[in-house]
Amino acid sequence: MRDSYSIRRIKDRLMLILVWSSLILALIPLFSILLEVFFNGVRAISLEFFILPTPTVGETGGIANAIQGTLVTLGLASLMGVPIGLMTGVFLSEYGGSKLSYLVRFINDVLTGLPSIVIGIFGYTLIVASIGFSVVAASFALAIIMIPIVARTTEEALKLVPASIREAALALGIQRWKTTVFIVLSGAKKGIVTGVLLALARIAGESAPILVTMGYWRWWFSGFNKPVSNLALNIYLFAISPFENWRVLAWGSALFLMVLMLGINILIRVLTREKY
Amino acid sequence: MALKKYYFHKILNGEFKGDDMFKLVSNFFALSILLITGLMVYELVKGSWLSIQRFGPWFIVGTVWDPVFTQTFSTLPLILGTLTTSLIALAIGVPISIGVGLLLSEYAPKRFAWLVSFLVELLAAIPSVIYGLWGIFILIPFLRHNAYPFIQSALGFLPLFSGPIYGGGVLTAGIVLAIMIIPIVSSVSRDVFTAVPRSQREAVISLGATKWETCKIVMSYARSGIIGAIILGLGRAIGETMAVTMVIGNKFKILPSSLFDAWYTMAAIIANEFTEATYDLYVSALIEVGLVLLMVSLIVNILARLLIWRMMKFVRGVVQE
User: Fold this and answer.
1) Largest alpha-carbon pair distance within chain B?
2) pLDDT digits over A16-65, tens only?
3) In this complex, which of A12, A84, A262 lies closest to B29 when CB atoms are compared?
4) What residues pair up with B73 in beta bridges, in sequence order?
5) Do B17 and B82 have their domain in common?
6) Residues paired with B66 in a beta bridge
7) Quick one: CA torsion of B18, B20, B24, B26, rounded to 10 degrees?
8) First-to-last CA distance in chain A?
9) Which residues of A touch B28 (CB under 8 A)?
């Protein structure tokens, strides 16, 4: 060591300060966003906000149709995404170790990192091109975003189930697939629910794929081959609009989405914490 | 082939049971992920075929985007815009993230680390469009009136920081992206730091190293993992759409006059112009922008995953020995 001990100690203290200030720098935007969304959003909250559809300029209105539309989209996306993600997770955990499983896991990881707008364009060329801008196309795109998240968390949840439980079931003469479905899967229920919640939280906030597969819709749900209103996309369109009542709605919708996200995240924390 | 024969044999002998069925089904679903990925590439190539035929490789290197008069499309400025904003994001976000990662794995007490990682993960849970909303109404006014005039008075002699200040622009997009990549980079770097074997730390501590010197050893051991985390953050920044569209100003130009000027990125142009594209070639060109984006992020993501995997495998190998 060339430096004397006092210089080394000063360096050490300096880095301690830097490391802690990096945490503060990272948390400033978080608290700014949380506080601004809360205080600006609260101004929009009223009874009308929850029961009226999107207003025209100057009218009072709310986000009821957007809540309905978002629920429909999330429901459809889960119908497509959860089974595929779940079964892929089962495959990776129960039949892992083959060359194929390494490839699947790798592609799965890569899929997680793909830009959501590209997945939206995929939905556009595959579905919108034939049946038009619709809730089906949007849910398809969102399902593809869900799959890798559900698959990964399912795999990890199943791996946490001890081998002794599997062996005990097999020793009783239960078939392997029944062991997997009724014993391993039900033992990992909490982890799987966590994964699905995580995926839902992620796609509830997606707006880029919605924009290219469904576009903007001011009305209520009116069929699966039509678009529906969407909370996240509304925030974008309201924010860049020049109308004051829409801007207030943008903050209100943002608050609604944030509360939803916070709720889901805290739920996940509680679910995963109990396990240890 | 052998597998198929095996199942065929089993069916013939009436031995095809629930187990085989279940294995087949789960194989089928796992394969569907590969199929979907392949189909995605195929569909994007098909959708952009019109534009590929018309412009060829010039699409990547040309600097004209004129949907109105000449109907010519090329993307070099968009690619540069994407790279510039992402690199600014890395320059700001990576030191902060590595600091947070070190704090979580080396400095903070366990309970406190749990709280911090929860807060940082909340940053990741905030939807991109809310970052954009916050960017438009909170960050941009702050930067325009407070931060940017200050930066300009200090560094205005550099061409990078001269010129008019609008609030939105390249640097603003970079700052928003930096905030957005902090969660992923810091959580992956925390993971690779915690994966460094204890013996490494104990060895340097026993030689009388200070805490920071221990951290340096940890970081040098986890080098490839950190690089993987950074590239993962880069991939996130490259694909980010809505937040960038809302703060970058959305102007197609070859180069912006300064970091305060408006520009465009690949993702932003798709979000901004896709619903306005009125003729087939225009839509096809935008899909080709998506294809370029897909290729760039595929390369970046594969690189990042390979680096992180190698690091983790290496560590696991050491631990097993």
Assistant:
1) 85
2) 999 999 999 999 999 999 999 999 988 888 887 787 787 777 777 788 88
3) A84
4) B65
5) no
6) B72
7) 60
8) 43
9) 87
CATH at residue B264: 1.10.3720.10
Residue range B181-229, pLDDT digits in tens:
999 999 889 988 988 888 889 999 999 888 888 999 999 988 888 988 8
- Is residue B75 domain-resident? yes
**Which of B19, B42, B112, B130 best probes binding to A when mutated, by most A CB atoms within 10 angstroms?**
B130
Give dist(CA B226, CA B208) in Å, integer.
Answer: 26
Low-confidence ranges of chain B (pLDDT < 50): 1, 319-321
Residue B157 lies in a domain: yes
Query: Locate tokens 């996940």: which residue?
Result: A268
The set of residues, in sequence order, having a beta carbon less than 8 Å from that of A194 and lying 6+ positions away, is: A153, A157, A268, A271, A272
- Assembly ipTM: 0.89
Give chain A positions within 8 Å (CB) of B218. none
Helices (H), B207-279: 211-221, 223-239, 242-247, 266-273
**Do B43 and B82 lie in a common domain?**
no
| Nearest-angstrom CA–CA distance, B83 and B285 | 20
What pLDDT was estimated at residue A223?
77
Structure tokens at B40: 């995605």
Q: Are B150 and A57 in contact (CB under 8 A)?
A: no
* DSSP secondary structure, A111-168, as one string: HHHS-HHHHHHHHIIIIIHHH-S-HHHHHHHHHHHHHHHHHHHHHHHHHHS-HHHHHH
Residues of B in contact with A128 (CB under 8 A): none
Give how far A218 is from chain B: nearest CA, Å.
16
Give the total residue count for chain A.
Answer: 276
- The whole-angstrom separation of Cα A236 and Cα A246 is 10
Residue B42's CB is within 10 A of a number of other CB atoms, namely 13
Q: Which residue is listed with tokens 């240890």? A: A276
Instruction: Please give the CATH topology (third level) of the domain spanning A65-272.
Output: MetI-like fold (1.10.3720)
Do B61 and B38 sit in the same domain of this protein?
no
Q: Do B110 and B39 reside in the same domain of the chain?
A: no
Cβ pairs bridging A and B (under 8 Å): 261
